[in-house]
Amino acid sequence: MSSTVTRTRLAIVAAAAGIAILAGCSSPAPAGKASAASCEPAKGKVTLQYWNTVPGMDKVVDLWNKKNPNIQVETKNISNDQYGIIGNALKAGKAPDLAQVGYDQLPNLRTQDAFVDASGCSAATATKSKFVPWTWSQTSFGDTGVFALPQDTGPMALYVRSDIFKKYGVAIPKTWDEYAAAAKKLHKADSDLTITYFDPNNAEWFNGLLWQNNAEMYSYSDDKWHVTVESDQSKQVTEYWQKLISDKLVRTDLAHGSTQMYAAYQKNQIASYVGAAWGYSMFRDNLPRQAGKWTIVPMPTWGANGASGNWGGSTVAFMRGSKHLYESVKFNTWLNTDPEALALENELGGLYPAANAGLQLPALSKGVPYYNNEKIFDVFAASSKKVDTRFAWGPTQKTVNLALQDAMAKAAAGDGTLTDALAAAQTAALKSMKDQAIPAAAGK
Amino acid sequence: MSNQPVTSESRVSRTAVMALMSLLAIYFLLPVYFLIVAATKPQGDLASTNGLAFSHFNLFENLRVLFTRSDGIFGRWAVNTVIYAVLGAAVGTLISALCGYALAKFRFRGREFLFSVILGGVLVPTTALALPLFLLFSATGLVNTYLAVFLPSIVSPFGVYLARIFANAAVPQELIESARLDGAGEFRTFFSVAFKLMTPALVTIFLFQFVAIWNNFFLPMVMLQKESLFPITLGLYQWNGQTARAPLLQQSVITGSLVSIVPVIIVFILLQRFWRSGLAAGSLK
Amino acid sequence: MTDIATRATRVVESSVGRHRRSNGGGPRAGTVAAFLTPFFLPFVLFYLVPVGYALWQSFRVVRRTGGQYGTSYTTFGGFEQYVEVLQNSEFWASIGRIGLFGIVQVPVMLFVALIMALLLDTPLLRLKSFFRITAFMPYAVPGVIAAIMWSYLYSPQLSPVVDLLKGIGLEPDFLGPGAVLWSAANVSTWLWTGYNMLIMYSALQSIPQELYEAARIDGASNWTIAWWIKVPIIAPSIVLTTVFSIIGTLQLYAEPAVLRQISSNISSTFTPNMLAYAVASGNNYQQAAAISVIIAVITFVLSFGFMRLTSKKAGL
Question: CB-based contact (8 Å) between A435 and chain C?
Answer without folding.
Answer: yes
